[in-house]
Amino acid sequence: MSYAKQLEKLERENAQAKARVKDLGARRRKLMRKADARRKILYGVAVLALLKDLPEAKRLATLERLHARITVKRDRDFLGLPDL
User: Which of 4, 6, 16, 27 is 20 to 30 Å from the Cα of 34, by its Cα?
Assistant: First the structure.
């Protein structure tokens, strides 16, 4: 096999390997996003369950602290919270 053909073959294999690396990176990022979303949902469910069990005064104080952490206008609008 000539050097030109060997070089062409290696370049093709290199391009394929780079494409596989890129694909694996995309899959990893997708899985990490899914895991992050699931983690947020689970913590949200836990916080809501906790709020149900708190006495009224403590529940309101906790909600006030949580609401203060929600700073994005679109999110505050969705939850019916006043602007900061």
Answer: 16
CA gap 18, 48 in Å, rounded? 45
Question: Which residue, 55, 36, 33, 54, is CA-closest to 44?
Answer: 36
Provide the 3-class DSSP secondary structure of residue 37.
Answer: helix
For residue 26, what are the CA distances in angstroms to 12, 16, 35, 44, 71?
Answer: 21, 15, 14, 27, 30
**CA angle at residue 49 from 61 to 83, to 5 degrees?**
45
Task: Tell me the per-residue pLDDT of 10-58, one tens digit each, with 9 for 90 and over.
Answer: 999 999 999 999 999 999 999 999 999 999 999 999 999 999 999 999 9
- Report whether 70 contacts 78 (CB < 8 A): no
